[in-house]
Amino acid sequence: MASRNVEKLDLSFSAVPDKPKKDWVIVYLRILAFLATASATLVMALNKQTKHFVVATIGTTPITVSITAKFQHTPAFIFFVIANGVASLHCLMMIGVDILGPQFDYKGLKPVLIPILDMMSLVLASAGDGAATFMSELGRNGNSHARWDKICDKFGSYCNRGGAALIASFIAIILLLIITVMSINKLKPKK
Amino acid sequence: MESIAKARKICHLLLRFLAFGATLSAVIVMATSHEKASVLVFQVEAKYTNTPAFKYFVIANSVVTVYGFLILFLPPESLLWRLAAATDLVFTMLLVSSISAALAIAQVGKKGNSHAAWLPICNSVPKFCNQVTGALVVGAIALIIYMLLLLNSIHRVLDPVIFRKC
């Protein structure tokens, strides 16, 4: 009788173990964060405005000078584009890892690497955001103490598009923060 | 094992104290930077309150200083370390954003921006520029220490077995 009970126990333990439940919420959030960072990068990278100014008039023909406002003129915006580009590539890679994930074996350092990379891209996106915010504030209001003129009254749509890229980047940072907290939470050992 | 646990505790406390000192000195160095100069016929005074980016730097670093001071007194076994991990993450983000913003404005002040007709101001107020550079360097050191502390507190929350005495 005892041997038969032991056999029954053996059979129940050799059954197929439960597959880990896939977490679709974090994949959905990563897709949203990827869209937000990619749109911030694209809107700022394609930000260009050309304006023609009449400088002098010789006789009846006006001499016009065309001035272009590009994002490459300011190192802060270059950093913003690079930071958001890296963050969007990271989100894309993490979506791939999450969808194809359960096929690979998670041992050793790999489960810790995902929250660390998430934190790094969060910090990078936040840095790019801070620089671009204050640079665009300087462009909008100027600085009377340093005799820096504001440029937003001449290049209105350049400033507005930069502002839209900034808003997308703020949304991306909030999403990245939630994703980071969730992926750190995943590391907890199950009781 | 007990000596290792004690060494870890001392190391952690030392790191927190260093972070507190670094943010405090960043605040002090940035707040005491002002210089008067005369450019052409104007009397120019350069202070940190001229730019919102430097004001943000001072405010962010002082908030983190107060937090760093309060967390020195948290007993190592309490349950509040989960909250400390979360606030560490938020304050690291705050620090990095403030340093990046101040660095962007300081770069414009040093090199100017020829496309927007913004002239560099560091030639007229070199002492102010040097002091701002010093404050930014100290702020960067504080940021690195806070990133290490963030990894430490997340590790402490998720795997507390190592931190208990054997």
From TrEMBL, chain A:
InterPro entries: CASP/CASPL, CASP_dom, CASPL. Keywords: Cell membrane, Membrane, Transmembrane, Transmembrane helix. It is a multi-pass membrane protein. Its main location: membrane. The chain crosses the membrane at residues 25-46, 77-100, 112-135, 164-184. It is found in: Cell membrane. Belongs to the Casparian strip membrane proteins (CASP) family. This is CASP-like protein. It comes from Stylosanthes scabra.
From TrEMBL, chain B:
Residues 7-144 form the Casparian strip membrane protein domain. The chain crosses the membrane at residues 12-33, 53-74, 86-108, 128-151. This is CASP-like protein. The keyword Membrane applies. The keyword Metal-binding does not apply. Its main location: membrane. Pfam families: CASP_dom. Belongs to the Casparian strip membrane proteins (CASP) family. InterPro entries: CASP/CASPL, CASP_dom, CASPL. It is a multi-pass membrane protein. Keywords: Cell membrane, Membrane, Transmembrane, Transmembrane helix.
